[in-house]
Design goal:
The structure is a single chain. The chain is mainly α and 200 residues long. The two termini are 66 Å apart. Helix content is 83%, strand content 0%. It is built from 9 helices and no strands. It has helices at 2-12, 20-25, 34-72, 76-92, 95-113, 115-151, 160-168, 170-173, 176-199.
């Protein structure tokens, strides 16, 4: 990984020209005296030398940073996570994000205060309550019937085949338990339809 970073650094180090001879070949802009031009060229050479030194220092610091991360067991994935976290934070505090959040908040307030939203919310709430009550009634009926079946268990002489066969037989549909369950489901279905249509 270090060699990959060094390769990137050496590529980045070629971005700013350090060739002072090339700079000397260009003609001086009008209005500069020869002394001013020499002074500017001298300052340019010093700045370019400082840039080169800073690049070397930066490369050494990045190598040292990589070694420290390796010793601490930090992987490039950890760095990526940290960068993404920082980037997301930067996005959240950006003007565009803040303004968009404010605008969406305003729209949300307008929508939730509208009559259509309130009516829809009430209708869905009522439908949920009615469905919950219906399912509760069905659950109670099933529990009660299962309790009745536990109180009167089948005899042990039936095989598993005969139990499955007896449940699937048409005679089962004519039993009082099945009729009671079927009537209750029909009543609930009719109640939900009637109430659901009248509310809309």
């Amino acid at each position: 990984m270090e060699s990959a970073n060094q390769g990137l650094l050496s590529d980045a180090m070629t971005d700013v020209p350090v060739d002072s001879a090339a700079a000397a070949r260009t003609s001086a802009p009008e209005g500069l005296t020869l002394a001013e031009e020499e002074e500017l060229r001298s300052e340019l050479a010093k700045v370019e030398e400082e840039i080169g030194t800073l690049r070397q220092v930066l490369a050494a610091k990045e190598r040292h940073c990589g070694e420290l991360k390796r010793k601490l067991g930090l992987t490039p994935l950890d760095g990526l996570k940290q960068n993404l976290s920082k980037s997301w934070h930067d996005v959240q505090v950006s003007n565009a994000y803040v303004k968009t959040s404010e605008k969406l908040g305003e729209w949300n307030d307008k929508v939730t205060q509208s009559d259509f939203y309130k009516k829809t919310q009430e209708t869905l709430s009522q439908a949920g309550q009615k469905t919950s009550a219906a399912l509760s009634n069905v659950g109670s009926a099933i529990s009660r019937k299962l309790g009745d079946m536990r109180a009167h268990p089948f005899s042990h002489s039936f095989s598993s085949y005969s139990i499955r066969h007896s449940i699937s037989m048409p005679a089962m549909r004519n039993s009082a338990t099945f009729k009671s369950f079927e009537d209750r489901v029909g009543t609930i279905k009719t109640s939900i339809r009637a109430n659901g249509l009248s509310d809309m």
